[in-house]
């Protein structure tokens, strides 16, 4: 079941001249119970209004006053808390680097109760234009309705980039941009019309990335900062279901390798260093200078019998972008053997300071692991630690950085244990992480309570993504695919 919170209808938001004044309130020394919990969060100055609902016992009216250090205050009085977008953005802009104070009063049984005011901090760090994510129902046997969507973070506008209704029987996944730049995009499509969509500066190709020398089609893409290469993994996977309800599904590697795609020559570059029979290699990610390839590696085990013994380390290998060759040594940054845990989804910040990863008990499919948490690796100090500011008692999993490395988005099941929703947190110049806030919605409780899809693989984009749906459909339904050659590197 989804969470149980009372909802009392929309009602009209009254103008200040028509509002019912808060008279002789009883003062409470606690914050109000609101959904989502936006108390004491740090937000970018361009974020959409953080509308919220007061939860708990029934009430007749709610009154909210938002006061900044500068500018005019906001006042909402009605049944829900919904701020005017232009007024909200002006108040945030006027108070960059300062805080806002929210005073919430609720009328119950004809009497007003006023709660302790809570702060919200307006960061000096800007955030990117928007997010791109997949929305998918948490089913496993068949493809239900799914799609990849982009969301303007300054408003509530969401539009589809590609949906599986575009071509029958299609599954879309594994989308990736180059450091939040929308002009380079890779999307993997499965099904009878499968292939890898690659769009560079408006030019669209559909690739057949499966070759006789590789295990599978390419998945889990990560662009080289130059745009000249894309790292992929090729995985022979199988899916299994747990017998206990706390552990729902597992996706396991029977074998996995890492390859590098060179779009200019339509070549897959392979190396024996990343195609070992005694290891599973997956989740590649280039460093911001393009000279290091991070990835996850586990000692190969007999599957599925030993799936709980498969634990991935965080590793790295040198990469030369001038000629597409690799170093001769693999370094282990976080040892699965020493930690007794498993690393997945390494994501370096674009300023080269940190690398964020997910840590779980075993395997690499941490999306359904309740124990999965986010960890940070300090690349300068070569130390790593849990990000306590954002972790919860439920799953924290996939994550990505904003282009300026001062924000990150991650998926979490903390809300109801079933669906992954998106949260955003800030990182200051000293590495301090702020309390995360849930992706804003116009009517948050109504939206999330009625949502039957999980957010998946979020990534930032600096500007809107432009993709021609008719061209995508035409290229997918045609049988022609660009075939790839394989070049072996040392």
Description:
The structure is a single chain. With 490 residues, this protein is mostly beta strands. It contains four helices and 35 strands. The N terminus is likely disordered. Strands 1, 3, 5, 6, 7, 8 and 9 form a seven-stranded mixed β-sheet that branches.
SSE blueprint:
Elements: E1 26-27, E2 34-35, E3 42-43, E4 53-54, E5 61-68, E6 74-78, H1 85-94, E7 99-108, E8 111-114, E9 118-122, E10 130-136, E11 146-152, E12 158-163, E13 171-178, E14 181-190, E15 195-200, E16 203-208, E17 218-223, E18 230-241, E19 249-262, E20 267-270, E21 279-286, E22 292-299, E23 312-320, E24 325-334, H2 336-339, E25 342-348, E26 354-360, E27 373-378, E28 383-386, E29 396-401, E30 407-412, E31 421-426, E32 437-438, H3 444-450, E33 454-461, H4 469-477, E34 482-483, E35 485-488
Parallel strand pairs: 1-8, 3-9, 16-34, 20-35
Antiparallel strand pairs: 2-4, 5-6, 5-7, 7-8, 7-9, 10-11, 10-33, 11-12, 13-14, 14-15, 15-16, 17-18, 18-19, 19-20, 21-22, 22-23, 23-24, 25-26, 26-27, 27-28, 29-30, 30-31, 31-32
Q: Describe the sheet with the most strands.
A: 7 strands, mixed
Structural class label: mainly beta
* Domain unit count: 2
Which value, in Å, is the CA radius of gyration?
24 Å
Helical content band = under 10%
The CATH class label of the largest domain is Mainly Beta
Q: How many beta-strand runs?
A: 35
Report the CATH architecture of the largest domain.
Answer: 6 Propeller
Estimate what percentage of residues fall within beta strands. Answer: 35-45%
> Averaging pLDDT over every residue, what do you get?
90
State the helix count.
4
**CATH homologous superfamily caption of the largest domain:** TolB, C-terminal domain
Mass-distribution shape:
globular
Uncertain regions: pLDDT < 50 for 5+ in a row?
A: 1-17, 240-245
Distance N to C terminus: 53 Å
Kindly identify the CATH topology of the largest domain.
Neuraminidase
Protein name: WD40-like protein
Organism: Phocaeicola barnesiae
